Amino acid sequence: MGSSLTTLDRFDVHALARAMSHSIGPEGLNFGLTPAQWDILGSYLQPFTVQPGQVLIEQGQTDRMLFLVESGTLSVHLEDEKSRIRLAMVGAGSVVGECGFFSHLPRSATVQAAGPCVLWRLSPVRFSELSNRQPAIALQMVMALASVLARRLKDRPRRIAAT
User: Fold this and answer.
1) Which residue in 44, 86, 111, 116 has a CA-CA distance of 20 to 30 Å to 53?
2) In the CATH scheme, what architecture does the domain 6-156 have?
């Protein structure tokens, strides 16, 4: 990631849950968790803010961080020696970083904040802990992430936007 990220001192995972429950369309991500399950999941996530222009994911990098979007908009784009091509805009209630998170492959695109955003990140280590301690929550999360990934891959023009 390019610029430094600002970690929030106080956070409310239920704001993320609301964003997800209000998100519709192919980018919508609904874990189907109860408020108590969201409290548990929130203890595995790290909330932070980014400012416009900050890069979350760099094309070609091999990190495996997953980002859940509570508010704001992220731009997903490809870069080559000559230009930058915008592939998608991802908003509140969705996710970026799902391909790298699951595949261990280099990132297929760059993701940058289009405006101020509140995000929640999940590392592979914290997900492993969640899976061991709360397998039902981890399974619901994986099924929701797989659903978003499948919808992105099925949509030909946006297929490459899966990060």
Assistant:
1) 44
2) Sandwich (2.60)
